Amino acid sequence: MPSPGEIEAFVTAHLPIVKQYAARMGLVDIVDRELDCRMHVSPGEILLGLVMDVLCGRSPVYRVEEFYRTRDVALLVGKEMTAESFNDDAIGRVLDRVYNFGTWKLFSLVCLKAFQNFEVDCSVAHHDTTSASVWGEYEPSPDDPMLITHGFSKDKRPDLKQFILSLLCVEDNLPCHAGILDGNASDKKTNGKLLMELPRIMARHGLGAREFIYVADSALATKENLAIMEGTRFITRLPANFDACGELIKKAMASCSWQDVGRLAHRIIKGKDICASYRMQEESLELYGRNYRVCIVHSDAHDKRRKKRIAKAIGKDAATWKTKAEELGKKKFFCLPDAESAALSLQNSAFHKVSCSIEQRPVYGRGRPRQGEARQVKAIHYHVQATVHEDKEAIEKLKEEAGCFVLMTNVSVDEKSGPEILRIYKEQDGIEKNFGFLKDPLVANDVFLKKPRRIEAMGLVLVLALLLWRLMERAMRRKTKEEKITLPGWNN
Question: Across the strands, what pairs with 384?
Fold first, then answer.
C-alpha cells in the first residue's frame, strides 16, 4: 500500500468530457496530420491543452504551464506529457505553425469533421461581427494578417486599438467559419467579402447556393451586397435610415391588418412571461431595381435603444422650443400684425404643440394724471405669450412605431411563412451569445500576445473551444428534451 507521501491528487473537473468531445471532433488527429511537424509534443495535443485551459477560464500563454501543474496532464491530453510541455516557447511555436499553415483553413477542416460526426444541419447560417479591444501600441507591419488600429468600438472603448472578429454560425450557434479582420473594417464590406466566399464555404458541407439561407444584420442591405446575393437566399433587416423603412411602418400602422404571431419563446420571472409578443404584416418592396418580400414586425417590448432615443429627442425638442418661447416673450411689437406674424413662426414640432396668445400692454405717459383723470396712454405694445406642451398623440404614435422593424428577404412564401422568417431572424441573437462567450473576461482575459499572427492563431483556439462547448450544450439540450428533464437555473 503506498504511503501518503506517494499519493498525488489532481483536478480533472469536466475536462475528461472535453477530451472525449475533442476526440469525436478529430481535433488532435487533424491538427497533427495537417501541420506534420516533428515536435517532442504534437501540435494537436498542445492545441487540445489550450482548449481545455480556455474552458477552465483561460490563462495567459506564459501561465498555461502553471495551470497544468495541478492537472493530470497524461490523463487529459497525452500519455507522455507533463506540465512543462506547455511552456510558452512550445505554445508560441505551435501558434506560428498554425498561422503558417492557414489559421481558418485548419479550423474549417476540424469543423467539417465535427459537423459530419455530430450530424449538424447547416441550412441556416447566421453572420455577425464584434470588436475586441487590446492594450499596447501594435505598430503596423505589411506582414501582419490584420491591422490592429482604432475603429468603431462595440466595446465602447474608442481609446483602445482593436481587431474585428467575424463569425458565421449554423444550427444551435455552432461556429462554421470565422475570421479576424482589421480594427477599422466596415461591416458592409465584411458582408460583401464573406458573400464572395459563402458558396465555397457551404459547398464543403454539401449545400448548393439555393440550399441554405444567409442571415445578417442591416449592414447586409447595400446595393453591392444585394447584387452579389442574386442567387443566394437571405434574410436581413431593412436599415431604419432607409426612407422605405419608415414608409412601410407608417403604412402598416395605418392599415392595422396585423397577423398575430405571439411569443417565440417563454421565459418566466416572478410569474411573469418577459418575452416579447409579435404581430406582423407582409408587403413587397422594390429596391435597387429588384423586388423583395418584406415583413413589417411589431414587438410589444419596444426596442430600448429607440425608446431612449425618442425620450432624448423629446427632451431636446422641449428645451429648444421653451427657449424660443421665452425669447419671443421678451420681445415687444409695436403693431398687432407683427406680433401675429411672430406667433405664427412658432409652428408645432414633431413632439410638441405650441399655443400662442397676444397680450396688449399699454405704455403710459410720464407723470401723474390730474385728479379725476385717467392715465394717458402713450402707445400700445404687443407681447406674444407662448405655451409649449407635449403632443401626446404624436409621441404615442412614434413610440408605437419604435416597436416596429422591417425584415427583407428573397425567400418565397412557399418556402417559409412570415412567422418562420421572423423566427429564423431572431435566432441571430445566438451569435451575440457566442461573442459573450469569446469576450467573457474569464475566457478572453487580455491578449498577452505581441504578434498579430499569434493573436489570429489564439483566435482559432478560442473558436475551437466555443465549437466544442456548443456541441456539449447541444447534446445536453437534446437529451433533456427527449427525456423531458428540467434543469433548474439560477432562480431554482
Answer: 358
User: Which residue bears the cell 482548449?
Assistant: 51
The full DSSP string for 248-302 is HHHHHHHH--PEEEEES---EETTEE-S-EEEEEEEEEEETTEEEEEEEEEESS-
Q: Report the alpha-carbon distance of residue 186 to residue 194 in Å, rounded.
A: 12
CB atoms within 10 A of CB 222: 18
- Would you say the pTM of this structure is higher than 0.70? yes
Closest Cα to residue 331, out of 307, 356, 349, 351? 356
Residue 80, classed as helix, strand or coil, is: coil
Mean of all residue pLDDT scores within the chain: 86
CA pair distance 300, 278, nearest whole angstrom: 7
174, 467 contact by CB (below 8 A): yes
The sign of the torsion formed by the CA atoms of 31, 35, 36, 40 equals negative
**Rounded CA Rg of the chain:** 32
* Cα–Cα distance for residue pair 487/478, rounded to 1 Å: 12
| Chain segment 200-234, per-residue pLDDT in tens | 999 999 998 889 999 999 999 999 999 998 889 99
The Cα–Cα gap between 90 and 215 comes to 40
pLDDT in tens, 446-491: 556 678 888 889 889 999 999 999 999 999 999 998 988 887 766 6
175 bridge partner residues? 169
Give residue limits of the domains in the chain: 306-363+376-397
> Coil, strand or helix: which one is 129?
strand
What are 17's three cell numbers?
Answer: 468530457
Residue 235 C-alpha cell reads as: 434574410
Chain mean position to CA 378: 70
Best CA proximity match to 164, nearest among 126, 130, 137:
130
Strand partners, 236: 408
Residue 233 in 3-state DSSP?
strand
Any idea what DSSP says for residue 71?
Answer: B
AA letter at 86: F
Q: Give CA–CA dist 258/280, Å, rounded.
A: 5
Rounded distance between C-alpha atoms, residue 147 and residue 164, angstroms:
10
Between CA 175 and CA 125 the distance in angstroms is: 9
Q: How far is residue 422's CA from residue 426's CA, in Å, rounded to a whole number?
A: 6
Question: How far, in Å, CA of 165 to CA of 128, rounded?
Answer: 9
Q: What is the DSSP string of 335-381?
A: SHHHHHHHHHHS---SSEEEEEEEEEEEEEPSSPPPTTPPPPEEEEE
Which 3-state string (H, E, C) describes 298-347?
EECCCCHHHHHHHHHHHHHHHHHHHHHHHHHHHCCECCHHHHHHHHHHCC
